Amino acid sequence: MHSARRRPLLVPVLLCALAVFVAHPTGADGDAGEGHGVQGAGAEVVRLYQADAAVARQYEAGRHEAEELLAGVRRAGRLLDRERRAGAALRQDRGRTARSRDGGIPRGAAVPRAAARLAGAERAVDDGIARSRRAEARLVAEQAKATARWRLAQRRNRVLAEVRRSIGAKLDEARERLRARAAASVAAGSCGGTVRLGRPSKSVTSAWVAPVEEYGLSAGFGSRGERWAHRHTGQDFAVPIGTPVRAVGAGRVVKVACGGAFGIQVVVRHDGGYRTLYAHLAAVCVEPGDRVTAGQWIGQSGTTGNSTGPHLHFEVRAGAEPDSALDPVPWLQGRGVPVGQPENRP
Q1: Other Cβ atoms closer than 10 A to 19
Q2: pLDDT of the residue at 99
Q3: pTM
């Protein structure tokens, strides 16, 4: 019961916090993103990315709550209609008993018994009518209360939707700044420096994970096309610019580079000699020699290098040579990571 009374306060508190959060952008080093190149832009994208996710969770919870409340309003309406029909039927019965009394009581020995039965019937109907009226009044009050709660939930959801639109607009602007600064860094022969983004909000307990949390699969391993000299050597994950990229498993960073077909890239070596490559990044969060764990943020997706749009190019190699590339989808699936089928297969 306490949680139900406190629930309306959660959204205003959240909105106040997000208003301050969005109005005063702060990078990972405590400074604004402007003037801090890829580092400031990358940190701002992740900050807004997390704010958008927080509002989205609140909005979805509010939407489900509103649906439940609306169902309660409709249920109360059905019960009220049923009670009103029952009350109308009782009032019709009362009218019939009144007409019977007015029509007179038969003569003879049955007169007292008939009168008693008629009086008993009238009292029963009167009691039923009184109960029906009380039930109707209670249901009217319950319906009004449920309607008020539903309207409040709807208002909160409209506010949350507006906040999310505002964050989305700022996020689009920040992503464009990150894209432009990443492209400028690569053109200048620089990776833009290491961006410290902190830790993911969700803890990872499994040994292996997908390289990004939410994605669409596009070009798959072995695909043919004008973009590749031979066949596609990895799996593409379609994600917006600035999406945090995760190490799929524990290992050591053996390469951070920029330029060329892969643009900004990170390579991680895992046990067994396997290497995973994360390419077309907009920013990196690690340096060569760093130890990483499964799910740790190692960069942000982008569209640097030979790329026609925002995505993460992910490769798995059995060794250090590029021609040792393996199909990443079954490799991940064999380690307990469910990955859907890509759109573009050979």
Answers
A1: 12
A2: 64
A3: 0.68
